[in-house]
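COMPLEX REQUEST
Ligand: nicotinamide-adenine-dinucleotide
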Amino acid sequence: MRVAVLGVGGNGTGKVRVLRTCPEVDSIIVTDVREQRVREVADELDVEATTDLDRILNDRDVQLAFVSSSNDAHRELTVAAIEAGKAVLCEKPMANTLDDARAMVEAAERRDAYLEIGFELRHSKLYMKIKQWIDDGLLGDVLNTHCLFVSSAYWPKGTWRLKPETCGSMFGEKLSHYVDLPRWWVGGNVTHVHAQCAPNAVPYYEINDNYHTTYRFDTGAVSHLTFMMAPAATFQGDPLQNVIDQQTGDGHELRYLVQGTHGAAEANVFSRTIRRWQFSNQEEDFTSKVVEELTWPAAEDHDYFHNTTDQTKEVVRRVAEGLGPATPARDAYETTRLCFAAEAAAAAGRVVALDEFV
Ligand SMILES: NC(=O)c1ccc[n+]([C@@H]2O[C@H](COP(=O)([O-])OP(=O)(O)OC[C@H]3O[C@@H](n4cnc5c(N)ncnc54)[C@H](O)[C@@H]3O)[C@@H](O)[C@H]2O)c1
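STATUS: Structure written out below.
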């Protein structure tokens, strides 16, 4: 299969490296709007590279395109690739406006095309374990989830991620992963969301750098996400993409608690643990005890909490076999809707119904 990567910065470069390991892939072509980057990539990765997007769109041999550009180009590249008959994996967040995200889903549905969004946490062992516990009935019905995410301010000044017009929002760019998970775990539909932001801690971020967000599902379950960027000790790089040992104990936190009717689960990235509690027969005497505790070696960090590799490989396999996406784009659109509703709730300081965002 011939595969294209549209946008070859950090993420796109990683995609090329993984694609090289896929037996189904026999040729790769990449594009970027930066001529210099295209020249560098051709040398560094020894790959066919062009600034001419149309060359890829008109190449009938290209079956699959990975959209790894900055967020402001996701709609344009995704819709163009779908219209040209390609299957697409577009990185999260889907787009910088809900209209753009809807246009992407509708383009895919109109052509019955493969469109998947880069929510690789659904392919990561840590979060899959919790999903398995839930599906096996070990937690009962999920009632509450809580995510605490504390990070250093690792996006440097002057990058596209700090501006609303190129990034969209912190919610889409960073937190879409962490609201997508409870949607996957709980399985119901989010009906309402409330969010509050304090003034920013990092003065040169033009997007919000903190959130307290609560959202309710039609199952009755409630999820909360607290995100603070700045308090953890400075680390010049994404703490989740680099060696987490360096951040352990320095204030970085990424922790999920999931509570059900029969038990609870915890995922703790920085202590590399997953735990499960089981509740007693509650009518008699409500007690809780830890019944499972798992950990993983540092060498498996990527597989456990950030598994872009397996998502990329699975997309290639599915497209090669003529299958649809593991998670339909319509489902990712629901996560996107939640992100925009949370932003609106934070801006307005009120509870927002998801129905307000179609
Ligand atoms: N799933 C994840 O965990 C994860 C991790 C990192 C990045 N991402 C996503 O991947 C995307 C890229 O992030 P990155 O870290 O590689 O950013 P980056 O800035 O390193 O690279 C983005 C590249 O896109 C190029 N570009 C911009 N507009 C383009 C266009 N119209 N056509 C072709 N190329 C274009 C830029 O020139 C740049 O080289 C973002 O959407 C980001 O949110 C996802």
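REMARKS: The mean pLDDT is 96. The chain is about 35% helix and 25% strand.
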